Amino acid sequence: MFKWLEKNLPKIVMAPAVGLIGWFVYGFVLWTLYISFTNSKILPKYELWGVGQYVKLWGSRKWLIAVDNLLIFTALFLIFCVVIGIILAIFLDQKIRAEGVLRTIYLYPMALSFIVTGTAWKWILNPTLGIQKMFIDWGFENFTFDWLVNREMAIYTIVIAGVWQSAGFVMALFLAGLRSVEDEIVKAAKIDGANLFTVYWKILLPMMRPVFFTSFVILVHISIKSYDLIVALTQGGPGISTTMPALYMTQTAFHKSQVGLSAASAMMMFMAIAAVIIPYLYSELRRENAR
Amino acid sequence: MQDKTHSSYKQLEQRSKYTNMFLRWFLYFVLIVFAFYFIFPLYVMVVTSLKTMEEIRQGTLLTWPSGLNFDSWAVAWGGRGYGAGDTFLKPYFWNSIKMVVPAVFFSTFIGAMTGYVLTKWRFKGDQWVFLFLLFGCFIPFQAILLPMARTLGVLGISNSVVGLVLVHTVYGIPFTTLFFRNYYVSVPTELVKAARIDGAGFFKIFFKILLPISAPIIVVTVIWQFTQIWNDFLFGSTFSFGEAAPIQVALNNMVLSSTSVKEYNVDMASAIIAGIPTLIVYVLAGKYFIRGLTSGAVKG
What is the ipTM of this complex? Predict the structure, then answer.
């Protein structure tokens, strides 16, 4: 008995983690998957109903708006975060004075919650006393900036706040990547007569492919899961114009009590993330094994 | 002839010196403009929180406050002192502390143990176990919200700090395991083997050999978990309401409540109070914070 215990101790110690994750992650996802095939309303029902919830989901105007918003947000969020992140990383890599201070400033939004920063941005972007008033007081009398309350433009305020929060993170990833490149490579290229621009454009950035890949995965992941920022900034409004899938899911589940439908929307999010993550994990694992 | 090349070379050198200087200035200019962009919201938050509503209506976002006026901070933290509808952050701040401390402790401990087993007591298929756990870093939490709500109800801990501790512990395990596993993988296994030959057991090896060199990764993990859990809104808002809510939920409720005239100064003071613990940790231990972000960085 004691022998057995000693031999299996490592597995026993690992059991809580495996058990908890098995139950609370895999078990729960399967439960949600099952419920998405039932006609559950307030309470879950367990007789199967087929794909009715998915049909309903993709026929719902609100869901289509949510998916549309997600695509707009993801595209802009990715482009701006990566462009700003790379510019900052390359510029900071030029033996800059006070690099530490600047880096701290660029990255501090990552330490704050989306609720805190959303609250701040909501105040800055509000049309009566915020940035609009600032420009009017400066003498631009016809300046209007009402994106926050404008159905067409409100989604872009979420992009502004989201990019502000996450661009520094991309900067940190690229800076770490650039710093890990051997100095010799850059020196050799310079001796061959390449100017700094060529060194970055032709040599260093192409070497950053894994960093691009990682940033892409992380940013897409953040954008699919976007919830807090929208709640703090617009609550999906004006109207339903800034609804995103994560917000749709919680509203359908907890305000409208459409458990089956919300499970279907959750599974759509799950699949979207799996489509991005599984290739990523696969390639990471292969890289590690190759080492 | 030789003289000519020499002088043109000098000219070229001179010119490149000017372009270089221009580039330097341009570099600093861009970096400083971005620094302003990033600092701007924080600046606005701080100055707004120090103004009276009268000052806010008269000035602009950037106007400097007339003096150090901490009234709205006092209101945000302790309320106005009348009963109904007076929400303030103090009780929720303590809720968050009561939630964060045990959740960080348990998830870090479980992660350290699991990471230790996965690297120093390897067995057939341990790679798959790691992958199995790692996938938990990525799932969209929407896919587990419904069953979690029911489970907490069945356990009788919905709408309580205990329930949130459980939720945050469980969904922190994939990250803590990842951190410790990646750290212990670089510790030479020979050390462990030698100790095993000397007759040291499972726990003795952990506490005598690995734990003493784990300080950096413990700091990284604790900071990471602290920031994540303190800043969480999704779980907090789904599984708690009213008195058991953590601070981010309370902040959101305060800002959204439209009972009276909007008081932006109180809103901003509240936002700063809710953000200050993680901000302090970031300023004091930024190095470890960034390490958590980039080294283990698979999450968003």
Answer: 0.88
